[in-house]
Design a protein that fits this description.
Elements (H helix, E strand, L loop, with lengths): L1 H6 L1 H14 L8 H18 L5 H8 L1 H24 L6 H11 L4 H11 L3 H27 L1 H4 L5 H4 L3 H11 L7 H28 L4 H6 L2 H15 L1 H4 L5 H17 L4 H32 L4 H13 L1 H11 L5 H29 L1
């Protein structure tokens, strides 16, 4: 349904959960909800990062890799500005800034990882996720408008738009969204890798907590989600021939995140969500506009293609699926794979950046 696509799957899952718990059909607390956060979220991260081959990302993305980091810079700048302007108006502003830095560098997986790291309450995290998705949807429409604007195109190179072909666009979309075969052995391999990564990360975390004195470095190195992320990237890079082509890993990871989203919405008070929403909308808007301005300004100075710039803004806001979808919709076939790869790279760095920005802002405020 078109209305559902505009709301996005995560927001729909969240709203259904809040509705069911607030009218008394689902309990607001249960032991299984903790299981979802403690086990499914850590497992989802390696499943979503099995294609995060660092060498391939650097090799195949070209200038888009540079443009993506310009967008990430815009995310950090936006988080700092929003925190300074709204500190005192939003509860746990530094935690919100950390979560949104992670989300607007990577995607949903980073949002949830940093939310768990800072233990932000459901009454704050849920309206933040709704605001995040609504602002993101509005930005996607703005990006499509910018990409098609003849006036803006005069100021940037636009080689991909100049050679777009309608038939090529349709075939690229059909190929990208076609169903993929998934075997039982594929599921077993994917889950086995995910369990090993989480177990090793947990072991390293315990060693860090035991042997490293309390410092900012320990906060980063002892964060289970940061460890899981970098271990996953290491495996995806070193063993790319065997793990990079595993069907079903991304689907399994996404499914686990949807379960977490539903569980996240169950303890939420709808009145609290509505009360917190306006300021969180403003927070997300400031960050999104900052990303766009920083990316287009520095990208203009470096003479980077307009198509690559808007795709990188899209990748920071919505992750690899939305960036690839935009490249397909616009017929930029040569940019479909690079947009996926920079989005996956965002998954890799998002949690680390979110935790770092959040911790730094906590010390400053």
């Amino acid at each position: 349904y078109r209305w559902a696509a505009r709301l996005s799957g995560p927001v729909i899952a969240l709203l259904i959960a809040m509705l069911l718990s607030n009218i008394g059909i689902m309990p607001t607390e249960a032991p299984c909800y903790d299981f979802v956060g403690d086990y499914l979220v850590p497992l989802a991260i390696p499943l979503l990062l099995l294609k995060a081959n660092l060498f391939r990302i650097a090799r195949d993305t070209g200038w888009m890799f540079v443009a993506f980091h310009i967008s990430v810079l815009g995310t950090i700048v936006g988080a700092a500005i929003a925190t300074l302007l709204l500190h005192g108006h939003i509860e746990d502003t530094a935690g919100v800034a950390g979560i949104m830095t992670a989300s607007y560098s990577g995607g949903g997986v980073n949002f949830f990882a940093v939310r768990e790291s800072f233990d932000v309450s459901a009454d704050l995290a849920n309206p933040l996720l709704v605001a995040d998705n609504f602002i993101m949807a509005g930005m996607f429409l703005l990006l499509l408008t910018i990409a098609g604007s003849k006036w803006i195109q005069r100021f940037y190179p636009t080689p991909h738009s100049d050679r777009t072909d309608g038939d090529t666009t349709a075939s690229a979309a059909a190929e990208h969204w076609r169903p993929k075969p998934i075997g039982l052995l594929d599921i077993a391999k994917s889950l086995a890798i995910a369990f090993v990564v989480v177990a090793v990360a947990q072991g390293i975390r315990l060693l860090v907590e035991e042997h490293v004195r309390p410092t900012f470095l320990r906060m980063i190195l002892g964060n289970i989600y940061v460890l899981i992320t970098f271990l996953s990237m290491g495996i995806a890079t070193l063993f790319h021939k065997s793990v990079g082509q595993l069907p079903g890993a991304e689907e399994l990871g996404s499914f686990m995140l949807y379960i977490f989203l539903f569980a996240l919405g169950l303890p939420a008070d709808l009145m609290s969500v509505v009360t917190n929403m306006p300021m969180l909308f403003l927070f997300c808007t400031i960050m999104a506009i900052s990303i766009l301005i920083v990316t287009l300004t520095i990208g203009k100075l470096l003479k980077i293609d307009l198509e690559e710039l808007v795709l990188c803004v899209n990748a920071t806001l919505g992750g690899p699926p939305s960036a690839a979808a935009m490249a397909i919709a616009k017929g930029w076939t040569e940019l479909i794979l690079p947009s996926l790869l920079v989005g996956i790279w965002g998954y890799v760095i998002g949690t680390f950046l979110g935790v770092t920005v959040g911790q730094m802002l906590m010390r400053m405020l």
